[in-house]
Amino acid sequence: MKVKAKLKNGVVSVKCMAKHVMTTYDIAAKQTGNRDDANFITHISASVNGKTVWEASTSQFLAKNPIFKYKFSGVGAKGDKVEMHWVDRKGKTGKGKGKIK
């Protein structure tokens, strides 16, 4: 997972890319004949210094290697790390870090 974070005027802007194939129910049915083989990110969250600053529940509507953009304020300073975590439908997890610049 690639994470970029930038602090400007007290607001941290984050852009991250989660590397995941994001297989929808329809694609799984075409490839394997079984809709239950679908696999996509279902939950993604971000934290700074142990505090959750952003989280989202997602579905199959996201494209392969989805990009997320969000902003937050009140937590973090230059040099702190933004930690991202995701969980997919099969229980696999991914994570990434980016330093606030």
What does this structure look like?
With 101 residues, this protein is mostly beta strands. The protein has one domain (2-99): Sandwich (Immunoglobulin-like), CATH 2.60.40.10. Helix content is 8%, strand content 50%. A four-stranded antiparallel β-sheet has the order 4-3-6-7, with no helix packed on it. The chain has a three-stranded antiparallel β-sheet with strand order 1-2-5, with no helix packed on it. The chain is elongated and about 50 Å long. The two termini are 18 Å apart. The model has no long low-confidence stretch (mean pLDDT 94).
Helical stretch count? Answer: 1
In terms of structural class, how would the helical and strand content be classed?
A: mainly beta
Beta-strand share of residues: over 45%
The CATH superfamily is known as Immunoglobulins
* Averaged pLDDT: 94
What is the first-to-last residue Cα distance?
18 Å
Quick one: biggest sheet? 4 strands, antiparallel
Low-confidence stretches: none
Computed Rg: 15 Å
* CATH class identity: Mainly Beta
What CATH architecture would you give? Sandwich
| Number of structurally distinct domains | 1
Helix and strand sequence: EEHEEEEE
C-alpha geometry = elongated
Number of strands: 7
| CATH fold title | Immunoglobulin-like
Helix content, binned percent: under 10%
The main sheet orders its strands as 4-3-6-7
